[in-house]
């Protein structure tokens, strides 16, 4: 099973856009999503070594990171990035 950690912030316009894109995409997949707020969940996100560009979405397969997507991406870019993953 695929697990996803999504790190966003309420003040981040790209995060709002990408949250909607990811949620649409994840509806059709067997994915467990965990979402953290960049400002509120600082202790929880520290192990992920997040920089200042948001959103960050980290894909895990069997508890191993297999893909990290940073920033805003088009639906076409997302599909291409995820193509070989699932």
- The CATH homologous superfamily corresponds to Glutaredoxin
Question: What is the CA-CA span between the terminal residues?
Answer: 10 Å
Number of strands: 4
Main beta-sheet annotation: 4 strands, mixed
Can you tell me the CATH topology?
A: Glutaredoxin
- Give the C-alpha Rg: 12 Å
Question: Please, how many helices?
Answer: 3
Give the ordered list of helices and strands: EHEHEEH
Domains (count): 1
CATH architecture heading: 3-Layer(aba) Sandwich
Q: Helical proportion?
A: 25-40%
For the record, the CATH class is: Alpha Beta
> What is the 3D shape?
globular
- The helix-and-strand class reads alpha+beta
Low-confidence stretches: none
Give the helix/strand layout:
Elements: E1 2-8, H1 13-26, E2 31-37, H2 42-45, E3 56-61, E4 64-70, H3 75-82
Parallel strand pairs: 1-2
Antiparallel strand pairs: 1-3, 3-4
Provide keyphrases for this structure:
alpha+beta, Glutaredoxin, four-stranded mixed β-sheet
Walk me through this protein's architecture.
The chain has 86 residues and is an alpha+beta fold. The protein has one domain (2-82): 3-Layer(aba) Sandwich (Glutaredoxin), CATH 3.40.30. 30% of the residues lie in helices and 31% in strands. It has three helices and four strands, in the order βαβαββα. A four-stranded mixed beta sheet has the order 2-1-3-4. The protein is globular. The N and C termini lie close together (10 Å). 14% of the residues are buried. The mean pLDDT is 90.
């Amino acid at each position: 099973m695929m697990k996803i950690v999504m790190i966003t912030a309420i003040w981040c316009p790209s995060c709002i856009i990408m949250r909607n894109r990811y949620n649409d995409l994840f509806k059709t997949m067997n994915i467990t999503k965990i979402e953290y707020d960049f400002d509120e969940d600082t202790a929880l996100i520290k192990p992920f070594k997040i920089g200042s560009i948001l959103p960050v979405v980290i894909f895990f397969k069997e508890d191993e990171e297999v893909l990290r997507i940073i920033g805003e991406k088009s639906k076409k870019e997302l599909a291409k990035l995820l193509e070989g993953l699932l």
